[in-house]
Amino acid sequence: MVQITEQLVRKRAEHNELMIGTLEELSLHQEDIERIEHIGNWCRDLRILLLQSNLIPRLENLHRLKRLEYLNVAINNIERIENLSGLESLRKLDLTLNFIGELTSVESLRENYNLRELFLTGNPCTDYPGYRTYVVTVLPQIEHLDGQEVTRGERLKAAKEFPGLRERIVQLEAQNRIERDEQRVRVGRELASNEDDAGNDDDEQRKVTDFWQQKSEHCPETRIQMAKYSRRAAKDRPTSGDLELKKPPRTRKLFADCGRPYSLNEPRLGFEFRDEPDRYELNVHLYRFLDTSLVEVDAQPNYVRITVKGKVFQLALQHEIHPDRASCQRSTTTGHMLIVMPKLNPEQIVPLATRDEKAPATKPANRSNDRKELAGTVNIRTICAPETHDEDDVPELV
Questions:
Q1: Which of 76, 96, 230, 298 lies 20 to 30 angstroms, CA to CA, from 116?
Q2: For residues 35 and 132, what is the distance between their CA atoms, to the nearest angstrom?
């Protein structure tokens, strides 16, 4: 049985600095919780409470949440609406996909004067003839039912059809209650027989496989059994931590075997690199709100390395620099970091000659005169010198 503990509530209160006394929004969905408890004592200022996708069979222990405006208990095992009259500020109630067959239990929401939205989609009571007419008449304060707006004309029409409707609803509830009792006994026997058949590990695995493949009835007992098998499978499944232990640790190579530094960008930072005649300029786009204490800069003669929260940004340099004369500055507005690295011997670095510099100093005035123009037809026989061959060496044509 999964219980609501203080540790679980504080874990879901990270956005409130783990303080639960002033918490206004709490999400405890998909935790397989089987009972509502302690929330009314620990979180009196709650405005939003999300408890969907659990195994809650009953609404209880919520009467102290006087400021609660939105309660979501969809996809649970609730069969009756009760114990919500103390929620004075409740405006939205979501009971989607539960097992509410007692439609007359919605009358307990009459005292919730601020209730404006109600969701009952997917419950057995929504199949009753006159369901919407009954709810609209019993709860005149609601404005939306199952996501559809309740108009003034619909309310007037429902008021005319309401006389005698409650007796019919009560009969349908009694019939649903009888079917529910029979279903509870029938499903209980099936689950008990499956548990008795369990033996060794192979039988246990076969039982789990058969359970997921066979057709099952839609009832709270089946949901509980599904959650049980899901938790058991989650325990047997290796966690992400175990998978990381099995993987060999990735070795980071910063240098080649010959000592040449590699260029890599583990933090995936944007950067701009300029090669000036006397210096290198590297502008790294650090995150604006990143603390400077988390950044380390190391300039060496043939590379520069920046470590950001353990991740390495390294850039290999073509020419050696003066590490002692390098400077590093960070912008207070953008967070970018500019690293200026003077070159060791800038006078010995010869820039590549351009095409105009490689050309001779004296250029002819008219280039067209240097080209020999073709005159007449070309005799292809005189392109290559003729060779003499012995007639005996030339094979005959076939």
A1: 76
A2: 30
Q: In sequence order, what E strands does the chain have?
A: 25-27, 48-50, 70-72, 92-94, 117-119, 144-145, 148-149, 264-265, 270-275, 279-285, 295-300, 303-308, 311-316, 327-330, 337-342
The answer to whether 39 and 65 are in contact (CB under 8 A) is: yes
Comparing CA positions, the residue from 30, 36, 31, 6 lying closest to residue 20 is 6
Between 156-160, 257-261, 344-348, 387-391, the lowest mean confidence (pLDDT) is in 387-391
- What is 100-144 written as a DSSP string? ---GGGGGGGTT-TT--EEE-TTSGGGGSTTHHHHHHHH-TT-SE
Least confident of 68-72, 236-240, 262-266, 342-346: 236-240
Give the chain's length.
398
Does the pTM surpass 0.90? The reply is no
C-beta separation of 261 from 272 below 8 A? no
Q: Which DSSP category does 392 fall into? A: T
**What is d(CA 130, CA 165) in angstroms, rounded to the nearest whole number?**
7
CA distance readout (Å), 65 to 76, 217, 352: 20, 35, 78
DSSP for 65-110, written as a single string: -TT--EEE--SS---S--S-TT-TT--EEE-TTS----GGGGGGGT
Residue 309 makes CB contacts below 8 A (sequence gap 6+) with 267, 294
Coil, strand, or helix at residue 354? coil
Work out the mean pLDDT of the chain and round it to a whole number.
84
The Cα 142–Cα 148 span in angstroms is 11
Sheet holding 25-27, edge to edge: 25-27, 48-50, 70-72, 92-94, 117-119, 144-145, 148-149
Rounded to 5 degrees, φ, ψ at 39 are -65, -40
State the Rg of the chain over Cα: 40
Q: Is residue 219 packed enough to be buried (19+ CB in 10 Å), middle (13-18) or exposed (0-12)? A: middle
> 354 falls in which pLDDT band (50, 70, 90)?
very low
Q: How far is the C-alpha of 23 from the C-alpha of 315, rounded, in Å?
A: 48
Q: How does pLDDT run across 104-155, given as a tens digit for each residue?
A: 999 999 999 999 999 999 999 999 999 999 999 999 999 999 999 999 999 9
